[in-house]
Amino acid sequence: MNLTEVNQTDHCLQFSCPERSVSPFYVFLCLCAAITVLLTVCGNMLIIISVCHFKQLHTPTNMLILSLAVSDFLVGLFVMPFHLSRMIESCWISGPTACLFYIFISFFVTSISIYNVALIAVDRYVAIFNPFLYVEKVSVSNMCVVILAMWFLLFSYNSALLYSNGNTGPITCPQQCFTIIHEIWSLVDLVFVFVVPCSAIILFYALVFVIARKHATAIREINVQSKGSKSMADSMKSERKAAKVLSILVIVFLACLIPYFVNTLITDPVQRKSFRNVVTLVYLNSTINPVIYALFYPWFRKCLKIMFTLQIFRPDSALVNVH
C-alpha cells in the first residue's frame, strides 16, 4: 500500500532541508519518537513470545494474532524509525538504499496488517457461526499454512507493484524519499489492499453481530435445559466473548486506517499538510494493538506477569495455565 509520499519529479527541486537547531522542543520530539518505537517493538515482541512460548495459546485464532503482532513488530522496527525521523527532520537523511528498503517494507507490512485483520474477521465468523465445525476443521497447522500463503502472496504482490512501476519507481531526491505510483497500479492497489479486505472486515463482523444476537437468545434457552447442554452454552459464550474483544481491535484498526484513504482520495497528498499525520496514525495502530491485548485479554496479562517475574525461564513454564 502506498504509504510514502506521492510526488512528481519536478517537485524534487522544491524540497530542501532547513537547518535544525537543537532546541528543547526538538529533543522532546526525538524522545517521543524513540519511546513510540520502543513501545511498538517491545509490546509486539511480548505478544510474539507469549503466543510462541505457552502451549495453551497455540490456537488457530492466536496464530492470526501472532501474525498481526509480527507485522506490527516489523512496522516498529523498520518503518516507524524512518517515518518519525522524516517527520522531525522534514527531510530524508538515510540515503537511497534505505529509501528503497523503507518504501518496500512500508508497502508490505501495512498490507499484511490489513489482511491479517480481514482473516481475523473471517475466523471469528466461522467460529461463531458453527463452533463445532470450526474446532473439527480449523487446526493450528491449517491456519499456519493460510498465514504463510498470505505473507508470500503479499510479498509477491508488493514486489511486482514496485518492479512493474518502471520509471515511476522509488526515487530519491536530494534529501527526499518518495515514490510515484502509476495511475493503473494506484487503482489496483486501492482495490486489492483497501476495498477488498476492508469490505470483508465490515461484512463478516456485521454477520458476527447478527449471529451473536441469535446466540444470546439461544444461550438463555439452553441454560434452562438439562446440564448436558451446558457445554454448548459455554462454547457459544466463549466464541461471543472472543468476537467481542477482537471487534474492538478491528474497530480501532479501521479508525486508524480509513482517514488515510479518505485523505488520499480527496486531494493530492503532496498538497495536504495532514498527509503525513494520517500516515503516522496508520503506523501508530501497531503501537495501540498491544495495549488492547493488555486491557482486554487476561491471558496476555498473565503471560506478562510470568515473563516479568522471570518464571518463564522455568523448565515447565510452557505448560502453565494462562487462561
From TrEMBL:
Pfam families named in the record: 7tm_1
G-protein coupled receptors family 1 profile domain ranges (all copies): 43-293
GO MF annotations, alphabetized: trace-amine receptor activity
SMART domains: 7TM_GPCR_Srsx
Topology of the protein relative to the lipid bilayer: Multi-pass membrane protein
Transmembrane segments: 25-51, 63-80, 100-122, 134-154, 190-212, 242-262, 282-300
Keywords: Cell membrane, G-protein coupled receptor, Membrane, Receptor, Transducer, Transmembrane, Transmembrane helix
Localization in the cell: Cell membrane
GO cellular component: plasma membrane
SUPFAM superfamilies, sorted: Family A G protein-coupled receptor-like
Family statement: Belongs to the G-protein coupled receptor 1 family.
Protein name: G-protein coupled receptors family 1 profile domain-containing protein
